[in-house]
UniProtKB/TrEMBL annotation:
It comes from Aplysia californica (California sea hare). Keywords: Dioxygenase, Endoplasmic reticulum, Glycoprotein, Iron, Metal-binding, Oxidoreductase, Signal, Vitamin C. This is procollagen-lysine 5-dioxygenase. InterPro entries: Collagen_mod_GT25 (IPR050757), GT_PLOD (IPR057589), IPNS-like_FE2OG_OXY (IPR044861), Nucleotide-diphossugar_trans (IPR029044), Oxoglu/Fe-dep_dioxygenase_dom (IPR005123), Pro_4_hyd_alph (IPR006620). The keyword Endoplasmic reticulum applies. It comes from the Eukaryota. The keyword Metal-binding applies. It catalyses: L-lysyl-[collagen] + 2-oxoglutarate + O2 = (5R)-5-hydroxy-L-lysyl-[collagen] + succinate + CO2. SUPFAM superfamilies: Nucleotide-diphospho-sugar transferases. It is found in: Endoplasmic reticulum. Its EC number is 1.14.11.4. Its cofactor is L-ascorbate. Residues 638-731 form the Fe2OG dioxygenase domain. Residues 1-22 form the signal peptide.
Length: 731
């Protein structure tokens, strides 16, 4: 075969030399100018523009800054677009070798550049090619006038994109007078359906989505594909890879979701490639030059762990004199927490504005006012925070600011759950729908910045965008405040990003939070385990579980562990004192199954205060692992305990407890206050070993076998009150 191939190649070279192939070729290859009409520079436009820059496309924008007179894009209108083209394209009408490509811009993205466009256009053998779609709009009666197409092809003209030679394009847009309010799509449709004009201008429709892909009614036919660091859209119905992807009609959220990936935004092999675009650099900015921020907090329902919420706001790594505080709370329940917070921050921030329940200001109004407050203060950023958002990573504010997006939220979710602060998609009524990539994002399988239709709980909004968002929270009074806000942002084509590039915190579960107790969080171990743990478990708890750590053993087979925090001890004692129904320390005890207690104490059982379930859970989650470490080979999961009670020793009440065995496999005993300070005396003596623990440590637990070996007594408390918490585990 060699000689044959060789001769073919030689022939080609010959031909090329003869007609000056390469030079000729580049002469005949047209130039390409992309044009669009945009009156506002919103985020949709910026995304569009970025894609033209990425692919090196020449772009001319007409109408920027003028008042749009073409109606809303959702209804008939758009004649203004045609008129702006007419006005601006005249200058190009005599350029023979120039292709003009018109596209919409707020909802369109390019996925490739000039060469690909020219190649595809050349195949049409046409002077003007229009985008096409499956539905006819706005005049359905014109359907029968349309040429037939093959089954997998699109039959009807869409005016969101067309490409053609400058002369024909100009003739087309100036063919007839058109009112600004009249419909551009109808205008072009009538031209296309006019057989004479169609032939004269060699007009065709892009029925196979070679160049233009309209997504309305077509989401099911496209998939995102990757090739190394490249991403593109593939149409499985037509087998093409369209270049101008248009989120026409009501599919904007889906379009923006797809746009997260297109133009190589995110690919499987490289992850997010646009995440570091436009990054602000704050590294060398002095505190005094940092941007100003209004932090607006909203406490609209009784929220567990609000103290921690406030605390974490004050811990944000950001100069406080650049932050103004705004707080709206609408539940009296939190008055004390708010008061404490205000005391804590006194003098730390330049200004603090609090709107309390007595001001009778609803959530929506309070949120609108926060926007006004920020505008009035000429702030550079507004950070809105709902009370359910626990920001555990203090770099949050800086991280979000440097991302330089109009609106950005950190991904927050309920720990271990799929419930988060964003929606990947909307259903027809504008409420939650799960997007294809929702799971990947909440589970951090895909990491990046995600343009989504709804975010809540924590939002950083650029001050310069706020004037567009005035009254956003009441924009649609039929919706919740945050839904109304997001709808407004979508209307203004301001993108809302959720970022999962880092872990910044989580959401607490506040629904149905029971506030009937003194310290309600004590009861909240099931719904908010993470926060419960961080408030109530001793900070060195997990040290005991490390492999090489030796556990203290103050008496034979009596082990000692840090287990609960000071806060736990204080709130727990206060809660039980608040309940107040201490037993009389008599042998007769109606709370017990047999009605008789051999070694009675002055106590309160957990089931009396509604803490039994929580306590058993605590035993299983926190005590059992310690037991398994020191008494190896004994497994009982979950541990069982019928007797869980707090004991009170006082000189004038019950000062001590005579020697006894416990009805347990093992017993735990947690010291809830401090010897030598809160009380004198006290302690526990193990008779068999003549070994006493007289200096129990608050928040520490000791654990010992129950029957047989560890006969023990409670030593006399001589002053003050001593509290301990006891469980007889696995009786
Ligand atoms: C921040 O984003 C805007 C677009 O919204 C862009 O014009 C600007 O250049 C960006 N800043 C930096 C430092 O990249
Ligand atoms: C935890 O352990 C560290 C190191 O031993 C100690 O400094 C700290 O005080 C302990 N925390 C508490 C609450 O006891
Ligand atoms: C028990 O210990 C105490 C002090 O540690 C000691 O004074 C006492 O004599 C011991 N009793 C017995 C019976 O060994």
């Amino acid at each position: 075969m060699w000689p044959h191939t060789f001769s073919l190649a030689a022939l080609l070279i010959l031909v090329c030399v003869h007609v000056a192939c390469s030079a000729e070729h580049s002469n005949s290859r047209p130039e390409l100018l992309v044009v669009t009409v945009a009156t506002k520079e919103n985020d949709g436009f910026r995304q569009f523009k970025r894609s033209t820059e990425k692919y090196g496309l020449d772009l001319k924008v007409f109408g920027m800054g003028i008042e749009w007179r073409g109606g809303t894009m959702e209804t008939i209108g758009g004649g203004h677009k045609v008129n702006l083209l007419k006005e601006n394209l005249e200058a190009y009408k005599n350029k023979d070798n120039l292709l003009i490509m018109f596209v919409d811009s707020y909802d369109l993205i390019f996925t490739d550049g000039k060469d690909a466009i020219l190649d595809k256009f050349a195949k049409f053998d046409s002077r003007v090619v229009f985008a096409a779609e499956d539905t006819i709009w706005p005049d359905k009666s014109l359907e029968k006038k349309y040429p037939q197409v093959k089954e997998n092809e699109k039959r009807f003209l869409n005016s969101g994109g067309f490409i053609g030679y400058a002369r024909e394009i100009y003739e087309m847009v100036s063919y007839q007078a058109l009112g600004d309010q009249e419909d551009d799509q109808l205008y072009y449709t009538q031209i296309f359906l006019n057989r004479a004009l169609r032939h004269e201008w060699k007009m065709k429709l892009d029925t196979r989505a070679e160049i233009f892909q309209n997504l309305n009614f077509a989401l099911g036919e496209v998939v995102i594909k990757y090739k190394g660091s490249y991403s593109y859209l593939y149409n499985i119905r037509t087998g093409t890879s369209p270049i101008a992807v248009h989120g026409n009609g009501p599919v904007k959220p889906e379009f923006y979701r797809i746009s997260n990936y297109l133009a190589d935004g995110w690919t499987t092999s490289t992850g997010c490639q646009t995440c570091n675009d436009d990054l602000l650099d704050l590294t060398d900015v002095k505190d005094a030059d940092m941007p100003t921020v209004v932090i607006a907090m909203f406490v609209e329902m009784a929220t567990p762990f609000l103290r921690e919420f406030f605390d974490r706001v004050t811990k944000l790594d950001y100069p406080k004199d650049k932050i103004d505080i705004y707080l709206h709370y609408s539940v009296d329940y939190h008055s004390k927490d708010v008061k404490k917070f205000l005391e804590d921050i006194e003098g730390l921030y330049p200004s603090t504005r609090v709107i309390s329940p007595s001001d009778n200001v609803g959530e929506q109004m309070a949120r609108n006012w926060a926007i006004e407050e920020c505008i009035k203060k000429n702030c550079q950023y507004l950070l809105t925070l709902e009370s359910v958002a626990q920001i555990t990573n203090p770099t949050l504010l800086r991280d979000l600011i440097i991302q330089n997006r109009s609106i950005i939220a950190p991904l927050l979710k309920r720990p271990g759950k799929l419930w988060s602060n964003f929606w990947g998609a909307l259903n027809r009524d504008g409420y939650y729908a799960r997007s294809e990539d929702y799971m990947d994002i909440v589970e951090y399988t895909k990491v990046g910045l995600w343009n989504v239709p709804f975010v809540a709980s924590v939002l950083l909004i650029q001050g310069q965008r706020l004037p567009l968002l005035r009254d956003a929270y009441t924009n649609n009074p039929d919706l919740d405040a945050d839904m109304s806000f997001c709808e407004k942002a979508r209307q203004e084509v301001l993108f809302m990003y959720v970022s999962n590039r880092k872990y910044w915190g989580h959401l607490v579960y506040a629904d149905g939070f029971d506030t009937s107790h003194l310290h309600n969080e004590l009861f909240d171990i099931f719904n908010n385990r993470l926060d419960w743990e961080s408030r109530y478990i001793h900070e060195n708890y997990s040290t005991s579980l490390q492999e090489d750590v030796k556990i203290e053993m103050p008496c034979p087979d009596v082990y000692w562990f840090p287990i609960v925090s000071d806060t736990f001890c204080d709130e727990f004692v206060a809660e039980l004192e608040n309940y107040g129904q201490w037993s009389g320390g008599k042998n007769e005890d109606p709370r017990l199954a047999g009605g008789y207690e051999n070694v009675p104490t002055v106590d309160i059982h957990m089931n009396q205060v509604g803490l039994e379930k929580q306590w058993l859970h605590f035993l299983g989650e926190f005590v059992r692992p310690l037991q398994e470490k020191v008494f190896t080979g004994y497994f009982h999961d979950p541990p069982n305990a019928i007797m869980n009670f707090i004991v009170r020793y006082r000189p004038d009440e019950q000062p001590l407890l005579r020697p006894h065995h416990d009805a347990s496999t093992y017993t735990i005993n947690i010291a809830l206050n401090r010897p030598g300070i809160d009380f004198q005396g006290g302690g526990c003596r193990f008779v068999r070993y003549n070994c006493s623990i007289t200096a129990p440590k608050k928040g520490w637990m000791f654990m010992h076998p129950g029957r047989l070996t560890h006969y023990h007594e409670g030593l006399r408390t001589t002053e003050g009150t001593r509290y301990i918490m006891i469980s007889f585990v696995d009786p």
